[in-house]
Amino acid sequence: MNGFADFERYDGLGLAELVRMGEVKPGELLDAAIARVEERNPAVNAVVTRLYDEARGAIAGGLPAGAFTGVPYLLKDLGALYTGAVTSYGSRLFAGNVADHDSELTARLKRAGLVIFGKTNTPEMGLAPSTEPRLFGPTRNPWNQAHSAGGSSGGAAAAVAAGMLPMAHATDGGGSIRIPASCCGLFGLKPTRARNPLGPDAGEGWGGASVPHAVTRSVRDSAALLDATAGPDVGDPYWAPPPTGPFLAEIGREPGRLRVALTTTPWNGQPVDPECAEAATAAAKLCEELGHRVVEARPEVDAAALGLAVRIIVGANVRAQLEARAAALGRTLTAEDVETVTWERAIDGVTATAADYARSIGVVHGTGRVVARFFTTYDILVTPTMCQPPFPLGVLDMSSADPAAYLAGLLASIGFTSLFNSAGNPAMSVPLAWSKSGLPIGVQFVAPFGAEASLFRLGAQLEAARPWAARRPPPAA
Question: What gap in Å lies between CA 200 and CA 103, rounded to an integer?
């Protein structure tokens, strides 16, 4: 295979250190990543846009000195614009949508020295917890190609799990970092609301629910990436509480004796697979072994009211984005422009009234206050990441002919994750378990608003106690 032969032995910071030491050149790392994409992508369909020439040009022009100088990186096909590249949002409606500027997040990633060489698959408009868009076709789980890699950052997670690169850009509006991390055996942290910028094109996503970051193989890569990108952009409507120091410095720092709450009951009442419940229970026991105090507890919220509120907020945002695109194309939006579930959300966007939207924001804010009060008593909440192991492909297809099965699969995917998009808390999925059939099962850890540092300290402690980086999908999967 071309490029640096030991590419997969290192995380992102490890590769960057080799570049700094002069032991490998950025072009060799890029060649290694490209070779792996070309060899492995046909099996999993993770990468949908290739920016190889742009990446080589960036290296030739001289890379800035940053934490990740020379390390290859992939952007998700939504949530981060790249000048001259299509951002399709996984939708045929946006297939010709070429960006004429970089997002602020992209600019910060470039300043960190990352070499962006492609974009990854996503469900249409990022609406599903599986990545099966009509535009590009389904992304397959590297652990078992008959199963979902999760969504909406499924392409990113599949690329990292398949060894194409050590980390990749992702976004999370209801679990879209944590769900694919769980499905693919990776570390996935959703930052605090507004920790990372969405400018210059947006001040928030889905009423503050959607935030960008990454899926990674190591905890320290996630921390260093957040150091590189976090902080408000000019004109942001609000921002997260500033950290007390670099997130990377939290790796290896003693977390103290944490007050840990455990629940294996999702807020939306979906049934939980025993293997997922056991994964969370075992993680709580591991926390006890590490010196933390664990009790069973959870914040009590009105899940039905919250679910309706989120549906109205998401529908309004989806409708506005679709109508703007149709107007740019000089035509009227129709159901034929998008997939079935996307059109359902677009209908929500015109069925609800402005007063409904205002009430929905009130429900979300009230829920956040309930969660915040809970975390005055506890430092960490442990749950399964998902109610079920990764679903077979087809269950969460947004054009599914079985809407009941789709809805059940959706609710089982987001039953533990979406609450913390509404509340804004940071949360991480940690790959601590695998099913009897060999599929990854993640465990979610949630911290108080603004407390990513606590998650990085605990995440590194868990990583040291139960290392996962060397565990890779079988070649025949």
Answer: 6
| Residue 436 annotated as catalytic | no
Buried b (16+ CB within 10 A) or exposed e, 195-223: bbbbbbebebbbbbbbbbbbbbbbbbbbb
Cβ(155)–Cβ(132) under 8 Å?
no
* Mean pLDDT, rounded, of the chain: 98
Is 474 a member of any domain? no
Which of 176, 210, 413, 454 is an active site residue? 176
Our separate counts of H helices and E strands in the chain read: 14, 13
User: 323 lies in a domain?
Assistant: yes
Structural domain of 164: 7-465
pTM of the model: 0.98
Total count of domains within the chain? 1
Instruction: Return the DSSP state at 290.
Output: T
- The predicted-structure confidence for 382-393, as pLDDT tens digits, reads as follows 999 999 999 999
pLDDT, one tens digit per residue, over 117-165 is 999 999 999 999 999 999 999 999 999 999 999 999 999 999 999 999 9
Quote the tokens at residue 263. 């629940």
CATH of the domain at 15: 3.90.1300.10
152: annotated active-site residue: yes
Per-residue pLDDT tens over the stretch 218-228: 999 999 999 99
pLDDT surpassing 70 at residue 1 = no
Edge-to-edge strand ranges of the sheet holding 167-172: 167-172, 211-216, 187-190, 427-434, 440-446, 380-384, 259-262, 293-296
Domain-embedded: residue 473: no
Active-site residue, from 91, 152, 218, 222:
152
Is 383 strand, coil or helix?
Answer: strand
**Cβ–Cβ under 8 Å, residues 35 and 77:** no
Within a domain: residue 298?
A: yes
Cα separation, 124 vs 152, in Å, equals: 9
